[in-house]
Each structure stands twice: as C-alpha cells, then as structure tokens.
Design a protein that fits this description.
- With 354 residues, the chain is α/β, with parallel strands linked by helices.
- The protein is built from 16 helices and 8 strands.
- The chain has a 6-stranded mixed beta sheet with strand order 4-5-3-6-7-8, sandwiched between helices. Strands 1-2 form a two-stranded antiparallel sheet.
- The protein has 2 domains: 102 residues, no CATH class; 218 residues, 3-Layer(aba) Sandwich (Rossmann fold).
- The chain is elongated and about 90 Å long.
- It binds guanosine-5'-triphosphate and magnesium ion.
C-alpha cells in the first residue's frame, strides 16, 4: 500500500522522477492545441516550460505548410499546351515560409496573419468590383417590406411557378428539398441532371397557395437544356453561395444575363445560400487556408441585388434551417407585390426620377 504522502510526491510533476527527455517524448505525441493549453497552464511547471521549445512547433509547422500547399492545389487550363496544369494558389506565400529554420511558431502566426490581411483585401476588392458592375434598374425592396405587404383581395391566382438557378454546388437542390420536406437531404452532393420539381402548399393571408418549385442544373453542360423550364415563371431565384465567390461573380456574368436575354422584365430575387458557413470556425479556417478568403457579407449581397435589378435579397442556410421559415412568404407576397398595378406605377415613377 502506498503511503498517502509518498503517493502525492510521486505524482507531483514538479518533483517527478520523470526527467526532461521523457517529458519531451510524451509532449511530442500531443496535439499542438493541447501543447498550447499546457503552455498556458502555469509558467512555473517544468512540463509547461518544455512546451515552448521550437521542435514541437517545427513538426507542426512543416506538416501544416505541406497540408496548406496540398490544399491549395488547383487545376488551371493551359491554353498553349491544351492541358490542365497543377498550380498552387498563393504559392509565393509558401515558398517564402518553407525556408525558415527556427521560430516556427512565430512564422506560422505571420503566415496566417498574411492570409487574413489578404482575405480582407480581397473582400474590399470584391465590393469595389460589384460597385463597378453594369447597373440594371434599381428596383430593390427590402425583404421586411415584402413581408409587410398584404395580399390584394381581388387577386384570385394562388398557383405560382418558381425557378431556382445558380452555379453548380451552391445548394439549390438542398434548399428546395429542405423547403418542401422540412429536412436536410442526407446524401452528399448529387449533381442535378434533370429539372426536378418540388411543391409546397402554404397559407398566406388566409389564402391557400401552391408553390410549384423547379430545380435546375447548375453545370454549364446543361446551359442549352435549362432554358426549357423558364416559360411561365412567376419568380426566378438566382442562388449563390457565400463561401464561393465565383458563384457570386457568375450572378453578374451569367445568370442575370441569361434570364434578362430569354425573359426580359421578369421578377428576379437573389438568394445567398450556406450562410451557416459564416459562423462555422472550421469552415471559415478552411476557406482562409484554401483560398485566403472570407465568406461574402450581407452588405455585398444587398449591393449585388441592387446592381443586378433584383427585387429583393434573401439569405438562407438550409442545413440549419435559417431563413427558411418565411421564404414562402417572401415568394408569395413578392410575386403579388410585383404584379400589383399600384406598385408598378410607383416603380415606373422612381425609375423616371433616377
Ligand atoms: N454547409 C452547408 N452545406 C450545404 C448547404 N446546402 C447544401 N450544402 C452542401 O452543398 C453541396 C451541394 O448541394 P446541392 O444542393 O446538391 O447543390 P446544387 O446547387 O443543387 O448543385 P447542382 O445540382 O450540381 O447544380 C452538398 O454537399 C450539400 O450538402 C447549407 O446550407 N450549408
Ligand atoms: Mg442540384
């Protein structure tokens, strides 16, 4: 039986029989986050002092640098050779940081710091880019005003055709699935290859409304086929993901152009998807590491909606059901407001004044 006093001294790491080398070995198995926690525990303890040694950071640093550069590889089309070249995005950052031989922790902090500055700069650049886009008529109405609009009792139609478009993987199918079934799809991304239909019945101002919801294929291979679902649409919803700035840019360079060319003067709303990613620290970090970007902001979405002549702007996160509860209201009230002669008159007046 171990005497109480003896037991205490054996397990007191200050007076431990374990020497520094054994501690080092133990520490080398720990995750860097645990080392950081230990480092903060107490500066007096020898084991905590050991955690500050550069060798732990070296392994972590090298592993991270390798992972960052792997994660940032992308295929870029080479016009001259007619093949895809593997390029590392922001490679100058890695090459600069690979050469270090000491102060690994410090360099890792600097590297991430550079990305954050880069991400902030890119964000400001994107806002300037949106401001410079060709501006369609600004007919923007805030979502809150649409929600306050009361349905006109003279209007008899309660069947509405709504079409969702937007780049592939922005989450159109997931949004429609969640919207119509109240549950997020359990499968990973299955690219839509035919225009599927969903439907939803809802009650707005005591009127039963039927929403006929059309999914579409986001991939450019389907550009020719997609247009066949457009005729008779009451509302187009252009979707982009807040974590994919190419999908935001394509609102301007592809989707608005396509709809306005094939069906001018249609009612279009802009939907920003996957807003849960803005609050998810792991996903934010992944975006920072892979593309040195931050998710696009609400202000940028509203600005884009105004420049693109969209009627309103909505944000949703299908995965956590955020923004989904009043989406049917925005759709039904939005279509009715758009077709209201009093509203059209007001819109025309303000367009003349501009
Ligand atoms: N984090 C998050 N992921 C989502 C959300 N919505 C969809 N996703 C994921 O995004 C991926 C693409 O979703 P889809 O709904 O298939 O995208 P899509 O726009 O229909 O794509 P195409 O059919 O190829 O045009 C899937 O892996 C989904 O699980 C969301 O709200 N949050
Ligand atoms: Mg789909």
């Amino acid at each position: 039986m171990i005497h109480k006093k003896q037991k205490q001294s054996e397990f007191n790491i200050n007076n431990s029989v374990l020497n520094d080398d054994i501690f080092r070995l133990v520490l080398s198995f720990l995750q860097i986050t645990d080392l950081c926690k230990l480092q903060l525990a107490s500066k007096q303890l020898r084991i905590c002092q050991l955690t500050t040694e550069d060798q732990y950071w070296k392994d972590y640093y090298m592993e991270r640098i390798h992972w960052f550069s792997e994660a940032s590889k992308t295929n870029r089309w080479n016009k001259t050779t007619g093949t895809y070249d593997v390029v590392i995005l922001q490679s100058e950052l890695y090459t600069k940081h690979v050469e270090y031989t000491e102060n690994y922790k410090q360099h890792l902090i600097e590297l991430v710091g550079e990305w954050m500055i880069n991400a902030e700069r890119e964000q400001q650049e994107l806002t300037r880019e949106i401001e410079g886009y060709y501006a369609w008529n600004d007919i923007y109405v805030p979502k809150e005003d649409i929600l306050n609009y009361k349905l006109n009792s003279n209007v008899t139609s309660s069947h509405y055709k709504i079409v969702l478009v937007g780049d592939d993987t922005v989450g159109k199918t997931s949004l429609l699935y969640t919207f119509s079934t109240d549950s997020f799809p359990q499968y990973e991304h299955l690219p839509t290859t035919s225009s599927d239909n969903y439907s939803k019945n809802c009650l707005v101002d005591e009127r039963v409304c039927h929403l006929e919801l059309h999914d579409s294929e986001g991939h450019y291979e389907f550009d020719r086929l997609r247009r066949y679902i457009y005729p008779g649409t009451d509302m187009f919803c252009i979707c982009f993901s807040c974590s994919l700035e190419t999908s935001l840019r394509n609102v301007y360079s592809k989707w608005i152009v396509e709809i306005n060319r094939l069906h001018p003067n249609s009612l279009i709303i802009l939907i920003c998807t996957k807003t849960d990613l803005r609050d998810d620290p792991i996903k934010r970090r992944e975006l920072l590491v892979k593309r040195h970007r931050k998710p696009s902001s609400t202000e940028q979405g509203i600005l884009l909606a105004r420049r693109m002549g969209c009627f309103t702007y909505v944000e949703v996160g299908a995965i956590n059901n955020s923004g989904m509860a009043d989406l049917h209201q925005v759709m039904v009230r939005g279509i009715n407001m758009w077709n209201d002669p009093a509203f059209k008159k007001k819109q025309k007046k303000s367009c003349h004044l501009q």
